[in-house]
Write a structure and sequence with these properties.
Length: 93
């Protein structure tokens, strides 16, 4: 059976998500760990620090939000309130 591949061309939407006053790309960050064990919490804080620093170092980025979930399983998104809030924020933009 032959596979059918559909190519979806890039959208010019990137301009819509740029902050009009600064022409910076609005970037959201999401960090998650699946347990509340000590070593995972260290990983969590490292993720938050890494993404925050990465975005602030970029001249063309502005942090639109930091969204997080601690001790939440990765098997689904329904229980991930931070992830769902990030999606809602993107939909509002």
């Amino acid at each position: 059976m032959e596979r059918k591949i559909t190519v979806i061309p890039a959208s010019p939407r990137n301009e819509a998500i740029r902050d009009r006053s600064t022409q910076k790309l609005r970037v959201a960050a999401y960090s998650r760990v699946s347990t509340d064990h000590e070593e995972q919490l260290d990983s969590f804080s490292n993720q938050v620090e890494y993404y925050t620093n990465y975005i602030y170092k970029r001249q063309d980025y502005v942090l639109a939000g930091m969204f997080t979930d601690e001790g939440i399983s990765g098997t689904g998104t329904k229980k991930r309130s931070g992830f769902m809030e990030m999606i809602r924020a993107c939909d509002r933009s």
